[in-house]
Design goal:
By secondary structure, this protein is an alpha/beta fold. It has two domains: about 200 residues, 2-enoyl-CoA Hydratase, Chain A, domain 1 (Alpha-Beta Complex); about 45 residues, Lyase 2-enoyl-coa Hydratase, Chain  A, domain 2 (Orthogonal Bundle). Helices cover about 50% and strands about 15% of the residues. The chain is built from eleven helices and ten strands. The strands form two sheets. The chain has a six-stranded mixed sheet with strand order 1-2-3-5-7-10, sandwiched between helices. Strands 4-6-8-9 form a four-stranded mixed sheet. β1 and β2 form a beta hairpin. The radius of gyration is 19 Å and the shape is globular. The model has no long low-confidence stretch (mean pLDDT about 95).
């Protein structure tokens, strides 16, 4: 399938690389682009041969430099504005709940909507050239695609307030220090580093990985007691699988397990 704003290719068995291809505007996201991003992930969700998805930006300067300011300024009030923010929520939440392992390969500027999209991914790997931030207050907006919510859950309320209230960018090393990204690698190693992590994850039981993802995502919305109960139920679901039997048997027999996702 061909896309207007994205390139999609399978780069390793089970791993798809999605590249946002709007380098002339530093891969900024307008209404048609965020809608198509949702359709790209819907298509990948239906593809059982793909188990991990890496998202990056075309060119060397930007992952996603933010929302397209001119396009946002042209939104009609209130209907188009309401649909724009709701679409961003729906698409990013869909990525967050995806059955795939999702990795953001942040190769440059990830500002505003770019940081918000990255926050919906399971893992964020940054190039040493990356810069992240939520600068919306500087143009009279607020982060509206989950930035106020996901950033505070990830780096803590105080740091999130500092970054959002000031609108300041942080470089890759500072993003790593505060827990906004998982790792920092050289620009030339970024995609290979993401593929390596994906392959490591895909070597494990797909059911166990998915149940772990659900337990983390759902548990964060609950009290600790309710989260522990959810985890216990996920453990029981996983225990009843063929993969659990294969994994434990392989460990006892000192061999590499062959997981089938059953």
């Amino acid at each position: 399938m061909s896309w207007e704003f994205f390139n999609v290719e399978v780069v390793e068995e089970g791993i798809a690389l999605v590249t946002i291809n709007r380098p002339k505007v530093l891969n900024a996201v307008d209404f048609p682009t965020i809608k198509e991003l949702g359709r790209v992930f819907d298509s990948l969700e239906e593809d059982k041969s793909v188990r991990a998805v890496i998202l990056t930006g075309a060119g060397e300067k930007a992952f996603i430099a933010g929302g397209d300011i001119a396009a946002m300024n042209a939104l009609k009030w209130p209907d188009e504005a309401r649909e724009f923010v709701a679409t961003g929520h729906r698409v990013i939440s869909g990525i967050e709940r995806s059955s795939k392992i999702t990795i953001a390969a942040i190769n440059g500027f990830a500002l505003g909507g770019g940081t918000e999209i990255a926050l919906g991914f399971d893992i964020r790997i940054a190039s040493e050239k990356a810069k992240l931030g939520l600068p919306e207050v500087g143009v009279g907006l607020i982060a509206g695609w989950g930035g106020t919510q996901r950033l505070s859950r990830l780096v803590g309320k105080g740091k999130a307030k500092e970054l959002i209230f000031t609108g300041e960018m942080v470089d890759a090393n500072e993003a790593y220090r505060i827990g906004l990204v998982n790792r920092v690698v050289s620009a030339g190693e970024l995609i290979e580093a993401c593929k390596k992590i994906a392959k490591k994850i895909l070597s494990n039981s797909p059911i166990a990985v998915l149940q772990s993802k659900k337990a983390i995502n759902e548990g964060l919305q609950m009290s600790l007691d309710h989260g522990l109960k959810y985890e216990a139920e996920a453990w029981l679901v996983n225990y009843a699988t063929e993969d659990r039997n294969e994994g434990l048997s392989a460990f006892i027999e000192k061999r590499k397990p062959v997981f089938k996702g059953k």
